[in-house]
Amino acid sequence: MATDELDDEITTLLHQEDQRYTKGRRALVATLRAEGQPVTIPQILDASDGLAQSSVYRNLVVLEEAGVVTRIVTNDDFARYELAEQFTHHHHHLICSSCGDVIDFSLDDQAEAGLDEALNEIAEQVGFTVEAHRLDLVGTCADCD
Amino acid sequence: MATDELDDEITTLLHQEDQRYTKGRRALVATLRAEGQPVTIPQILDASDGLAQSSVYRNLVVLEEAGVVTRIVTNDDFARYELAEQFTHHHHHLICSSCGDVIDFSLDDQAEAGLDEALNEIAEQVGFTVEAHRLDLVGTCADCD
DNA sequence: AATCAGAATGAGAATTGTTTTCAACAGCTA
DNA sequence: TAGCTGTTGAAAACAATTCTCATTCTGATT
User: Fold this and answer.
1) Which nucleotides of C are covered by protein (CB under 7 A)?
2) For the structural domain made of B90-145, what CATH number should be given?
3) Which tens digit of pLDDT belongs to each residue from B68-102?
4) Nucleotides, chain D, CB distance < 7 Å
5) A108–B123: do the CB atoms touch at under 8 Å?
6) What angle do CA B41, B42, B47 make, to 5 degrees?
7) In this structure, what DSSP letter does residue A18 have?
8) In CATH, what is the architecture of A91-145?
9) Which CATH architecture group holds A1-88?
10) What is the mean predicted confidence (pLDDT) over A57-64?
11) Whole-angstrom Cα distance, residue A95 to residue A92?
């Protein structure tokens, strides 16, 4: 997605929540975009200097509420953030139980469709309204093996 | 699984880690077993009186390392614990984004097998050694709708 | 049974990722 | 420019979790 287009959509999303797309928030989005993988707050602070820690935490909450970014929690010490799927594509996570790193991956369309169908069936049975599904593979990444 | 059998297996798992199956740990397992659903530490403390908070935290770590219990992290404030799958059965979680509650569910065998296959393929491609997969449905539970 | 060494416990202190506070600042509107 | 409102940065506050340490328990050995 082009940067302008992305910025336009984010502006819209934020305005829906009566929030502005400020310089600090732009910097956050730029960082997440440049990384292309889920990153921790310390990583964000390192990668983009000049951002105050409190503002990063606060703005990530704002951006998450607006649906711009997604928060990923693992057993690791830090939460991770990445751009929301609407700005990237539907995907899942490989979580390394050794180093804590999180890597994106996608299922092929057929497997994804089959999974979706099975999940919708289940949800209907128990009266659960589905917002999203999360599929993680936990194990050891190539680096840690 | 019968209580005795369960206790035997847990004793073995703990001994492999040079740990004892003490009274406090038995109480934890009993509580998790009685609940049958993932529970938070506060819930455990409420449900089984007499347990010290520090011991509960400590023992859950020990039990997790031994593979007796599984820790579940969500966006909720508290981590949740349940008996490991080897003592129950393979299952997944419905996570209510409103109240934070976590409910177990299972996929039918066919869907599960298809998912497994797709995941193993992916893992092989990226050189990832799979320990487990986690599948969560995030949404709103029947109570919160 | 008595002893002894190491492990486990309980109460509270310490740690640490995250949230909140609040005074100063920026951006918009008139 | 003046005034209002939302945002920022630094530091304090918060809270789930972990650690400390003195005491108690366990269980192997005599």
Assistant:
1) 7-13, 16-21, 27
2) 3.30.1490.190
3) 999 999 999 999 999 999 999 999 999 999 999 99
4) 6-12, 15-20, 25-27
5) no
6) 95
7) T
8) 2-Layer Sandwich (3.30)
9) Orthogonal Bundle (1.10)
10) 98
11) 10
